[in-house]
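quick one before i forget lol
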Amino acid sequence: MTPGELVARVAVVVGGAPERLCEQALRGAFADVCRQTRLWTRRCSLAVPEEHRAASQSVFELDPPPENALRDDIRDIRVNGDRLPGFSGNVHVGAILDALGLAKAGDTLEWEETLVPNGGGLEILPDAVVLAGGDAAACAAAARLMEMPRRPWSNPSAAVAAWREFSRKLATLVHRDVAAGRHGLQMGIAGCIDE
């Protein structure tokens, strides 16, 4: 399934909504799917430079996320392969800087980050994310559009059914990854570590 096919699918289900609006609703829906399922992740690493003294005295640049994507959360922070205690759950970039305070020169800092789409077209999404999360995102996009008041395509009762279907599909995605021992698809991206 391609992003264009998903836009067309939402447009047919909603009936009358402009394609531009369908694409915008899908982009927001994919952000929700990625955020809730951790479907688009990457492992990153940073070699702590020799001149490192303390996080407050050093400036570190993290690899930027892909164009039109945002770093939503950071998990599983490790120094030289050892998980840092106290950094569980979703944390933000500040945790990387805190972790640098615990690392010494020559150490390797690693983490996993969840990415979400931000602006641009749906083409920025990796194919695996579109294939795995497309059905759920299409349901959420249709629900959002049908909830819009006083539009030719408004249909609150159908929106409720679409949200139910979205929740079911989302639960299936989460259950599948948990059963497989994963917490999101690992996407190999240049500059990051493939898992």
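fyi The chain is about 45% helix and 15% strand.
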